[in-house]
Give the backbone structure.
Amino acid sequence: MSKMIESRPEPESTPLVGFPGERHGWERPEPEAAGREFTLDYYLFLVKRQRWRILTFVLVFTTLVTVVALALPKKYEGTVIVRVDPLSAPVVGQTSQANTGQLNATTLVTTETKIVTSPAVVMEAIRNLNLAHAKEFAAKGAAAKLPGPERSDILLAAVTRAISVGQPLGTVLLDINFTTHSPQLSADGANGIANAFLDQEFKTRAKALEDSSRYMSQQLDAMRAQMERDQMALVRYESTHDLVDPDAKNNIYQARLAQINSDFTKVQGQRMALEADDEIVQSGDLDALLTSQRGAALIPLQERLLSDQRQLSRMSATYGPREPLYRQQAQIVQHDQSVLRRQELHIAAQVQDQYRAAVAEERLLYGALTQEKAAMNAFNLRAIKYRALKAAADGSSNLYYGLEQRIQDADVAAGLRSEDLRIISPARVPYKPVSPRPLVDGALAFILSAILGVGVAIAMGLMDKTLSSPDQVELRLGLPAIASLPLVSLKQHPDALKVAQYATKLLPENGEGGESGAEALRQRSSFREAILSLHTAVQFSGAERITVLAVTSSLPGEGKSTATAHLAGAFAALGTRTVLVDADLRKPNVHRIFNVPNRRGLSSVLRGQCGLDEALAPAFDNLTLLPSGPIAAAPSELLHIGLPEVIDQLRARFEVVLMDCPPVLGFSDASSIANLAEGVLVIVKAGATEQQKVAAALRQLRGAHANLLGIVLNRVSEQTDAYYSYQSKYYAGYAGEDDDED
């Protein structure tokens, strides 16, 4: 039997029929990539699932904000437009502060904004407008009994809160706003604040100029004495060192130094060339001397010597050494050698004399160059001192005369108003309140509440690690949710046998009041429709008809056994010879659902204690049961050895074999059974089973080469899937529900 299991080929992948995500335009996710990314449609699904709660929150919040806005008292706002111009024509004496300071326009406007709401400006406006007696700002109740300084602070804070300053984008304008419950007071207050602001700026600038002028006058005498000392020091240095124009004299020194340096470089090159020739002469190497420029005069003598020596060699072969012609030729050769030697000595003496002369000339020029450099350095030191004294004299003179001019300008500018700040548009009495604005406030409340509601819905959906709807199953696990079984009640059917037997009534009996089958189906409960949908999905889940179908779950308590019993009843009700096998040898449940004895069953057949016919128990028309039998000691080994043969026998007798398997996680029983089945369904309890547990179970089944048909969501309610809120209203009442048992 084990050999049979090992040789079982891996089932071919079948198309996922009825993939619900395709109706949304989703791409079918790969099994390994499932759950890594969420598409926009998934976020829309999360929002749609909570749409009624979101809508309720938005309506309540928007209505509340609108009602509050209508109940609040109206406020009016007066506005004065002030131009802040950092590039305007400067007031006399302010060029260095207004323009040369290169103050950034944005920084300047921001600074002026702070000044508008400063206590000095606000208190001046309060005094000018007599706001302490205005109805809106007058002290009332306990505040009227406070000491003067405290009342003044309270009044200052209240008026400051009524002031707001804005800057239109991309401009150097200031909008000074004053908000009160009185239109006239709003306009008067804005104009008063603007006038107090300009007066404060004028007073501050005038005081600063007066203080500056006073300080500069005190420093003027000291600056005059310093200027005179610097000029006298410069005159004394000029007369002592004869420095009237250092730049012209410096050019002479530089020209002389450049000429001596050029001559020294030329003589140094000649000396180096003669030194090389002298080394050749001293070495006595004739060949080296001939290759140099000095040996050019020796080349004709050398060639004549060589020619005479060749002639002597030929005569030696023809005549003997005693022949007169030979002796004559030998004398010629000796003469050539003596001439060549004398010429060599002459060139050597000439080279040595020229070399000694070049060395002496180089020494003299080097001394002159050194002296000239020293003279140049001494002159530069004197020139540096002269320039420092002259710069000090010029600086003190410029500073003195500049300070004198600034004192005069400051005295004039202290009485003039600057054009950097000017009112462009005074405030007018407003006729329309600025707050509250019910329509705008309501619209903002609507937008903010909608964003908040959608965000909370998405966050809650992302934090939910359970599987609640078919869309979540398809997106996160990469398998289709081929059916969803709704949550129903067993109160009307306490007998567990009736819960399974209801499936025989999916189709009307013959002669049922002439009612057509289609109308009868529409009148059945939502659970019956879900079971029928599951039956249809299984029938069309592959190219070939599935005979052996295994049903399992990742964990106990997900309603797997009850859902399998309902599905078996649906097959039987539609005329299919069906056998329901309880393959959970650890915690069997089928016999309790159908109220049949469990003394004999699958474990008995696998142990050889009885035959298959003895273990089978008829339930009703077209449905036969194979209970689990007594609980086995080693169910995994028992199923692994004998189950393939039992399945072959059942396949030969029945059209559909439904296997109620144990949970996948924790045991290997379900994987062994899934390998033998032609299709596997995984039951998942909606809103309860974690995605990671289901994914782990799917990985284990894929490792057993199981042909996964899809996921069946069980116990789906309108809390887990909003779609069933419609079904719960459409169907009135139900005749059964899967229990908590597995």
About this structure: Residues 246-402 form a domain with the Helix Hairpins fold (CATH 1.10.287). The longest helix spans residues 324-413. Residues 1-36, 89-102, 490-524, 725-741 have pLDDT under 50 and may be disordered.
